Amino acid sequence: xxxxxxxxxxxxxxxxxxxxxxxxxxxxxxxxxxxxxxxxxxxxxxxxxxxxxxxxxxxxxxxxxxxxxxxxxxxxxxxxxxxxxxxxxxxxxxxxxxxxxxxxxxxxxxxxxxxxxxxxxxxxxxxxxxxxxxxxxxxxxxxxxxxxxxxxxxxxxxxxxxxxxxxxxxxxxxxxxxxxxxxxxxxxxxxxxxxxxxxxxxxxxxxxxxxxxxxxxxxxxxxxxxxxxxxxxxxxxxxxxxxxxxxxxx
Length: 250
What we know:
The protein is α/β, with parallel strands linked by helices. It has 5 helices and 12 strands.
């Protein structure tokens, strides 16, 4: 089984929300995603969707978007929350939503850890970093809460490894980058290396940041940007059967 990732789909099938207002590169972006996804991902593969899945604010509005995702190739699609996913609810409610609507390929990563395609996954949404110029006093509470959620995910990761008796190659998945555009670390990024995490995948960024585009390695962790527009709307191959593809290694 191959593992892919793409972030920031920004779907809106329940109502009109044209994305090309953010630039020509977003023109017909859903058709481009579907075309490249179908050409790249097989029915036996897994795909992580790293947040900002939908502009919806309710379950009714998000259903057409989740149905669209479920119909795409891939045995497993794992969804993480982004800052625009206002439809997001408790894990129990979201599991109920996909079960009721028979969206059998969709799973969620929320305060827990999962094994898929020979890899262990953990992570959280993240937030604006304290080192960011736009960071405000009110952001501190949200950032601290994301650190707590990351620790919850790492605790579940430790239990997963304990039950299995071994550690698979491990990936941290976030929506916001846990390192700054200049490579400054944070309370979130500092949790990764001690937990033997080799790769951190993130989205959210839609402007050109050469440092992020370089897929840097910091304190033994490689950081890779997976925003859909950065990937030209094609899911990025992470690895297969627990082996990272070459560009993910160091």
